[in-house]
Amino acid sequence: MSKVLTALTAALGDAVATDEATLTAHGRDYWARSELLDWLGEPHPLPLAVVTPKSSAEVAEAVRICRAHDTAVVTRGGGSGVCGGVLAGRDQVVLSTRGLTGLVKLDEHNLLATFGAGTMGIDAENAVAAEGFTIGNWPQSIALSTVGGWVATRASGQYSTAYGNTEDLLYDLEAVLPDGSLFRSRATPRAAAGPDLRQLLLGSEGTLGVITEVTFSLRLKAENAVRQAFHFADFAAGIEAMREVLRQGWRPPVVRLYDARESRRHFRETCPEGRAMLIFLHEGPGAQAEVEAQAVAELCAARGGEAADKQTVDDWFAHRNTVPSWRELFEQGLVVDTIEVATDWKRLNSLYEATLARFEAVPGLVAASAHSSHAYRSGANLYFTFALAPERESMVAAYDACWRGAMQAAAELGAGIAHHHGIGRVRRDWLATEIGDAGVDLLRSVKQALDPNDLMNPGVLIPR
After folding, report:
1. CA angle (172, 173, 179) in 5-degree steps
2. 187 burial class (0-12, 13-18, 19+ CB within 10 angstroms)?
3. 344, 379: one domain
4. Which of 57, 177, 233, 427 has the fewest Cβ atoms within 10 angstroms?
5. Residues 408, 335 share a domain
6. Cα–Cα distance between 337 and 273 in angstroms, integer?
7. Structural domain of residue 13, as residue ranges?
8. Which residues pair with 426 in a beta bridge?
9. pLDDT of 318 over the 90 cut
10. Do 207 and 294 fall within a single domain?
11. Which of 165, 187, 220 is the endpoint of a domain?
C-alpha cells in the first residue's frame, strides 16, 4: 500500500475505497470522448483511491494528506459533466463530495437555503419546494448533478432568463483551499469589500479548491404559469422575436428557439416543415404570467410568428430531459455530442451559420442542428448537436474535428466558447480565445499562488 493511501486510511477509515467497482465508477465524468474511448477498448487508467469525506473537516484532512504526499486530488460531484473535467490518473485520488449531502439550514425569513455541496440538484429543489420555495435552477442534469458541481462549473438551468444562472443564485459558499485551509465567503446580499472571492471558486472546476457547502437565495414558488409556442419562417426570424421580447423587458423563465431540423425532430405534429419553433414559459404571482404571456404573444405575432398548440409546450416539459446514452448511440455507429456557445444578438445568426458550415465539412456528418436555450438583454446562447457516422477507426478523429470546427467558428467571430458546460479538457486549449493571453497568465498566477505544485485537478481548465 502506498504511503498516501496508508495515511488516508488511517485518518479517514472507511471513507477511503480502493475496490475496482468504486474506482471505475468515479474515475471520470460523462464526457463523450472518454465514453467513446472506453467503448472502443481504450479505457483510462483507474485512480489510486476514492475518498468520500462526510464533513468539511474531513475534506480538509484529505487535501492536507494528499498535499503532504505530492498526490493530485480530483474532485467529483455527480459525474454528469460532459467536458472532461473529471479524468483521474493512475496515481491520483478522487475526492467525492457525495458524503456532504442534505439541507443544512433553511432561513425562510431571508429566503436562504444552505446545502452540503454533494447534494443532488433535484433533492435540493425538492427540499425547498416542500416549504413553498424554489431555487430556480433547472439544468437538464438536475437529477444527476450536485449543487457544488453547479458552482464549480458555473452551470445554468433551463429557467435562467427569469431566475438567473448559478452565479446569480449563489449567496455564499464554503470551500477547502489547496493548502487545507477553510474559506467561507461573507453571507451578505451585496458587498463592496474588495474583489468578490466567491468568483475564484465559481467556474474553477476543482483547480483552486473543493467546494463543501453552498447557500442559495430562494424565490417563492410561482402562483401561476402559462405555456405557449410560436413557429417562425426560419431561425433568424425566431432570433429577432426573442431579441424583441427581452428588449421590451419581459423575462419568461423559459425562452427556447429550435431551428427547423430540431423543430421537426421535437415537434413533428405541431411545427410545419422548414419552420423554427419558439417556446415560452411565463411564471409569476397573480396575473403577472397572464399579462406577460399576452404581451409576448402580440410581439411574436407582429414578427410573423404563428401560434402552436399548447400541447407542444406540455410535451416538451414532459420529455425535455429524456435523451439516449452515448453508448446507445455508439452501438448504432453514431458519434454524437453537444456544444454550447454564446454571443450578442448581432452575431448570433452568423455564429449559427458558421458553426453548421464547419460541421458540414467533417466527413461522415449525418446531422447538425441547434437551438437557443438561454436569452439575455444583450445576446443569447446556441446549443449545437452534431451526429457523425464515420468508420470505427475514424470515430475519435471525427469527434475532435467537430469540436475544433465549433471552437474555430466561435473564435473567429469573437463569441464565447462556453455558455454553461464549462471548460474541462475539451475546451482547455481554446481558453485564450475567450480571455486572451493576459487572462490566461493571470489565471496561471492565481493557480500558482494557491496550488504551486498543481495538485488540484491538474490538466483541467488552464491551457498547458
Report:
1. 145
2. middle
3. yes
4. 57
5. yes
6. 24
7. 3-96
8. none
9. no
10. no
11. 220
Distance CA 132, CA 220 (A): 6
Angular region, 196: left φ>0, alpha ψ -120 to 50, beta rest: beta
Buried b (16+ CB within 10 A) or exposed e, 251-275: bbbbbbbbbbbbbbebbeebbeeeb
Q: What is the pLDDT of residues 411-455, one digit of tens each?
A: 999 999 999 999 999 999 999 999 999 999 999 999 999 999 999
Residue 46's contacts (CB-CB under 8 Å, 6 or more residues apart) are 20, 23, 24, 27, 88, 90
User: In total, how many domains does the chain have?
Assistant: 4
| pLDDT of 128 strictly over 70 | yes
404-418 as b/e: b if 16+ CB within 10 A? ebbbebbeebebbbb
pTM above 0.70, yes or no: yes
- How many of the other CB atoms lie within 10 Å of CB of 27? 25
Q: Which three cell numbers mark 214?
A: 453552498
Confidence of residue 121 (pLDDT cuts 50, 70, 90): very high
204 and 260 share one domain? no
Going by C-alpha positions, the residue among 457, 452, 424 that lies closest to residue 73 is 457
Contact 317, 250 (CB under 8 A): no
What's the mean pLDDT when you consider all of the chain?
Answer: 96
d(CA 215, CA 113): 5
Burial class (CB in 10 A: 0-12, 13-18, 19+), 127: middle
Max Cα separation, the chain?
Answer: 71
Same domain, 241 and 139: no
pLDDT band at 21 (very low <50, low <70, confident <90, very high): very high
The number of residues in the chain equals 464
d(CA 222, CA 64): 45
> Is residue 252 domain-resident?
yes
